[in-house]
Write a structure and sequence with these properties.
By secondary structure, the chain is an alpha+beta fold. It contains 12 helices and 14 strands.
Length: 452
């Protein structure tokens, strides 16, 4: 139960092995802690940061769009270090897109036309009880009619235009729109059109095949909409065939591209020496253990450096602790620092357990602390885990005292508590504060000097 010392290593390799080294670094992220190359390369002649744009970003973006069009969930599968060139991935995307894009374009155009036909059908149904002939209406010389709908929240604005020479006939209304027709003289229609456009009137243009009596026009529209629906179904079937044919290959390619992008994002750790690259990593591993990680990379060179060699550049070794599940959450109370040689987490855990059992021992308080720990999120937060730990030991103390919330004596006490209820809480709080203060003092006394 202590702070584990770390070592600094310089890992130099050929530029061609960049992705291989980054992959190995990522796979061993629990043991290797790479340092930001911007701190190392700052103002050093001949040394620069590997700042090229991630080559996988654009191809991956196109892949996202393609998977959306095919209705394939964008979930990366298991990655085992596979590689793929951007050119090969782009070739697959182009092959699928050439078959898919035309089908989607045709389908979307038909869907748009069908929606327009539905709008026209709606307005014709609303005025179907009127003795109107569309051909005669279209041939009128001195008046013009416009079919359409107005958003419900815009309709009240019409009252401000009562002086304008138009007639608006409302036919129906739903929670979003008011459907109707407005009529005006041909000489005024441009001004009237502009007025209705200002209140978001949506013009519904009747298709060319809708003509004659309304019943005939409605029948023709229904027939056309049904034909469109069938054709859209045929196109969707074709898209489903394309999806089935390419789904597995696309998902494999997506998984590879996604992980290669993540790996290349680590290029911020790479120092560029033109024909050579290097990363600087802190690790608790020995030199031989680090060498074994990169043993399959030809021409790699690993040197161990003094841990404080780059302190002046703001690079300090990470604090790595080795604590079990019982003590680990208590690192939150006194966070380890790079100057520490003493890790108080285990003693904090022991102390809190004893203090909770002795001073807070109670079946009710113990259960309440455990519930509080669950509410704080015992899986994701150390605070939740600390509450659960103290609750468990308070509950154990309560087993000996036999009390619930210091009010009910459930059974005869195995041990009699020497404290009153209020005293227990005060002594518990005071005990925790004193114990944390003692650990803080010991840590301060044992601190080593850190060069800045």
């Amino acid at each position: 139960m202590a702070i584990v010392p770390t070592h600094l290593y310089n890992v130099t390799f050929n530029s061609s092995d960049l992705m291989k080294v980054l992959l190995l670094t990522r796979e061993n992220s629990a043991d290797l802690f790479p340092q930001d190359s911007r701190l190392l390369a700052n103002n050093v002649k001949g040394v620069k940061v590997l700042d090229q744009e991630n080559p996988y970003n654009d191809t991956l973006e196109v892949m996202y769009h393609l998977l959306d069009n095919l209705g394939i969930e964008k979930t990366a599968g298991e990655y085992n270090g596979e590689e793929i060139t951007v050119e090969k991935a782009a070739s697959l995307i182009e092959e699928v897109s050439n078959q898919l894009d035309l089908a989607i374009q045709i389908r979307d155009d038909i869907i748009k036309d069908r929606e327009e036909n539905f709008d026209a059908l709606q307005i014709l149904k609303e005025i179907s009880n009127q003795n109107i002939n569309l051909d005669e209406l279209e041939d009128t010389k001195y008046i013009k009619c416009r079919f359409g709908r107005i958003p419900l929240n815009e309709f009240d604005k019409l009252k401000y235009y009562n002086e304008f020479p138009f007639i608006f006939k409302k036919y129906s209304e739903n929670k979003d729109f008011i459907w109707g027709i407005y009529t005006g003289l041909t000489k005024d229609i441009a001004e009237i059109d502009n007025l209705f456009n200002s209140i978001s009137f949506e013009l519904i243009t009747l298709p060319d095949f809708a003509h004659g009596p309304l019943d005939s026009a409605i029948s023709e529209l229904k027939t056309e909409c049904n034909a469109m629906k069938k054709y859209i179904g045929h196109i969707n079937d074709r898209i489903a065939i394309i999806r089935k044919q390419y789904e597995q290959e696309l998902l494999r390619t997506f998984t590879t591209l996604y992980n290669l992008k993540l790996i290349f994002d680590q290029a911020r750790y790479v120092v560029d020496y033109s024909n050579k690259h290097a990363i600087y990593v802190f690790s608790t591993l020995t030199l031989k253990e680090v060498e074994s990680i990169f043993q399959d990379v030809d021409g790699i060179r690993i040197l161990q450096l003094p841990g404080n060699i780059y302190n002046s550049k703001g690079i300090h070794p990470p604090v790595v602790t080795k604590n079990n599940f019982f003590a680990k959450p208590f690192e939150e109370i006194l966070r380890p620092r790079c100057s520490d040689v003493f890790d108080p987490a285990f003693l904090l855990a022991i102390g809190s357990a004893i203090i909770s059992a002795v001073f807070l021992g109670d079946l009710g308080w113990g259960a309440m602390l455990m519930i509080l720990g669950l509410l704080f999120g015992y899986r994701s937060t150390n605070i939740g885990k600390i509450f659960i730990s103290m609750g468990i030991f308070a509950f154990i103390g309560g087993i000996f005292y036999g009390t619930v919330f210091d009010t009910f004596q459930v059974y005869p006490a195995i041990l009699m508590t020497p404290f009153e209820p209020v005293q227990k809480i005060l002594y518990f709080l005071a005990g925790m504060v004193v114990w944390v203060a003692v650990m803080w003092l010991i840590r301060g006394v044992t601190n080593k000097k850190v060069d800045l």
